């Protein structure tokens, strides 16, 4: 491809390049979540218990959690396209290994390293998308680059589960390897390259964390995503209280489609109203939790609440990553690696906290636990004028390399 990146090209969204980043996110989410929909086929095919098959998700999450920061620090001097290609090649290799292996230990190791690839990818995608455009378009660029996540959750996972039930789980993983191969060519053709950080630009991890606003944004990430994952992880028992135990698939589809709407709305307003969007999303989610807690859990209330929840969640990743990247400036990739760790910690804590609440109190306690966490998140966001400024100010600095 032509490595010259003209300044005027940054005045509009580079759609193909941003969609390549969205495809990378799509593969990340699909690789992570698809085993959950194929547990019976996997356990039967490998003659293992469903609980052991479920550890495929755990191994992936552990890889993301443990490797995101070290790999980001290791590769921050590399050109950005090389790092992106490395992550996609990781998915190609480790999904292929999963598809062909019959050794559970080898598969779990492959899943761990696939998760490590995802951790590095998530640390990279937001900063990469922002560097492609002028400051006034950075939020919209990130929204487009993040669209792969709700598409994977709402359409990709059900489609992959359906494919696995018809053709077997191995072909599903092989198909994801095929997507990775296509994406490698797409990146080489359409995605511009940018330099990594020079030795003089590097800042220690602790110093990045202490940058004004960075810690506050990560605090909101932890509390907001913990609240989300308590309900999302244990949505089935929560729905059972409304007589909807058999409609989990429909509810998740509603959530996913609403999330797509949320990210579309976010893309329209993020560059001018980031702070308001964060505060409004948290407030609306809190209101939904109050309604869930006070009202009789009828199907109508549940469906409406799930749709509104999905709408507020759809833009969350884009809003929070934009706020974090703005606060961290040129050290955005390092800060975003902390976001990967914080986000995955919230997923793990959501599973643990939700499980304890379900066992000792019941699913009716979920709305109140969620409300408490969201109030904490709101308090942090309201006070964090640097992490969530009233108006976004971003610096330009587009310096592609061959």
TrEMBL record:
- Report membrane topology: Multi-pass membrane protein
Keyword Transmembrane, does the record have it?
yes
**The keyword Membrane belongs to this UniProt entry's keyword annotation:** yes
- Where is it mostly found? membrane
- Record's keyword terms, sorted: Cell membrane, Membrane, Plasmid, Transmembrane, Transmembrane helix
Q: Which SUPFAM superfamilies does UniProt cross-reference here?
A: MFS general substrate transporter (SSF103473)
Q: GO CC: one term? A: plasma membrane
For molecular function, the Gene Ontology terms on record are:
transmembrane transporter activity
Segments traversing the membrane: 12-34, 54-75, 82-100, 106-129, 141-163, 169-191, 211-232, 244-265, 277-294, 300-320, 332-353, 365-384
| A Pfam family it matches | MFS_1
Location within or outside the cell: Cell membrane
Q: Which residues form the Major facilitator superfamily (MFS) profile domain?
A: 17-387
Q: Which InterPro entries match?
A: MFS (IPR011701), MFS_dom (IPR020846), MFS_Efflux_Transporters (IPR050189), MFS_trans_sf (IPR036259)
Under CDD domains, the record lists: MFS_NepI_like
Q: What is this protein called?
A: MFS transporter
